[in-house]
Amino acid sequence: MNEDVVIEVRDLKKVFGENVVINGISLTVKKGETVVLIGPSGCGKSTLLRCLNGLEPIQGGSVLLHGEPVEYGKRSLYRIRQKIGMVFQDYGLFPHMTVLDNIMLAPVKVQKRSKQEVTEEAMSLLERVGLGDKAKSYPSQLSGGQQQRAAIVRSLIVHPDIMLLDEITAALDPEMVHEVLNVVLDLAKNGSTMIIVTHEMAFAEAAADRVILMDGGIIVEENPPEKFFRDPDTERARKFLSTFSYSR
Amino acid sequence: MDWLFIKEYYPLYIRSAVLTITIGVLGIVLSVIVGMICALCRYYKIPLLNGIAAAYTELSRNTPLIVQLFFLFFGLPKVGIVLSPEACGTIGLAFLGGGYMSESFLSGLGSVRKIHLEAAASLGLNGAQTMKSVILPQAASVSTPAVCANVIFLLKETSVFSAVSLADLMYTAKDLIGMYYNTTEALTMLVIAYLIMILPISIVFTLLERRLRHERV
Fold this sequence. Notes:
The complex is a heterodimer of chains A (248) and B (217). Helices cover 36% and strands 25% of the residues of chain A. Chain A has 248 residues and is of the alpha/beta class. Chain A has a 6-stranded mixed sheet with strand order 6-7-8-3-9-10, with helices on both faces. A 4-stranded antiparallel sheet of chain A has the order 2-1-4-5, covered by helices on one side. In chain A, strand 4 and strand 5 (68-69) form a beta hairpin. Chain B contains 8 helices and no strands. The longest helix of chain B has 41 residues, at 3-43. The A-B interface holds A 53, 55, 78-79, 81-82, 84-86, 88, 90-96, 105-106, 109-111, 140, 151, 154-155, 158 and B 115-116, 118-126, 129, 133-134, 137-138, 141, 215-217.
C-alpha cells in the first residue's frame, strides 16, 4: 500500500434511522494534502468527519488510517484517535481547566510525555497562534476566536497525522473567522494533512489542494480549487457556487 | 423557663447528640458511597445494574425513613436477621440517603456537555481518563449544592431514630417530657441542639456553594 496515504475511506455508508446520510463515499487523503469539504447544510459533511475518527458507528464500508481500520467502539480507537486531531464548531475546551491545562492534558495523561517538554511546546504553539499571554486564562475569559485557536493548538500538540476541522468558524463573528482561518492557512502552507469542512469559500479556495462538493450523502464533484471555483464540471457545483454571489 | 432543669439535663442532650452525629455521619458517608456507585451504574448504563440502581433509587426516595427503619428493626428479625438499633439507624439512613445522593450525582454527571466528551475522545483519552479529568471535576461543581442539601436533610431525618429505640436527641427529649413533664424546656433544648449541630454545616455549605459558583463563571 502507498505510504503516502494517510486516510482512506472505502464506500462509507452512514444511516440515522431511515435517513441515509452518507451513501457510499470513497476518499483518499495523502500526506501533506489539504482537502476542503463543502456542500449544503445536511449533506453529510460533518457526519463524514465524525465517522473518520470513530465518533459515529458506520453501517457500511470502512475507514483506514495508515491501513488500520478505524472502528467505532473498539479499544484500538483510543490509540488511533491520538493520530487524528479534531477541532469542533463549538471549540469544546474544558471549562474547568486553563488554556494551558487543556492543551497539556492529552500529551501528558495519554501520551505520557514529560511535562516540561510539553509545556515548552505548548507555549511556542500558543505564541504561534497569538495566544502567548492567554495560557493561564480559563476558556470563559476568551473570545470565541481565541478559544478556537486554543482548541486548534490542543489538537496539534498530540502531533496527529491528520487534522479534521468541522466548521470551526461557524459560530464566530466575521472578524474572528479571519484570525482563526489564518492559523489554519498557515498550517496548510506548512504541509499539515487536513480535511476541512467549511462554508467560507474564499478560504476554501486559498487553503485547499482539493475541493470536494458533497450533496445528498455522495461526492458530487472533486477538483483542484482553481478548476472547481472557476470552471466546475457539474451543474450542481455551479448552482452551489452561485448561492455565494449576489447581483442586482 | 425552668433553668435548673436545663442545667441538670443538658449533659444528656450532649451525650445523645454525639450518638446522633456518629450515626448521622456514618450513614451519610455510606450514602455517598452507595449513591456514587448507583450513579455510575446508571450513567454508564451498565446492563442489569442500571435497572437495579434505578429501582433502588425510586424505592428509597419514595418511602419514608421511618417505614424503612421499621422494616429493618421489626421486619428483618422475622427472617432471622437481628440488627442492633445503631446498625438499623446507620443502614436506614444510608439506604434513604443513597437514593438521594444517586440522583444528585447522576444529574451532575449528566450535565457534562456532549462536546466535552467528544473532545476528550478525539484527544485519545480512554473512559477512565475522561471520567477523572473531564467528567468528575465538572460534575462535582454541579452536584455540590444538591449533595449539601441532602446532607442537611439526612441529618434532620435522624430525628426519627427514636422510633427504633435509639437514644438520640429526639428520644432524650421525649423521655424527659414523659418523666418530668417539662415540655417547654425539653423541646427548647432539642431545637437548640439541632441548630447547634446543623446551622454551622449549613453556613459552611453556603460559603462552599458561593465559591463554586464564582469558579464556574
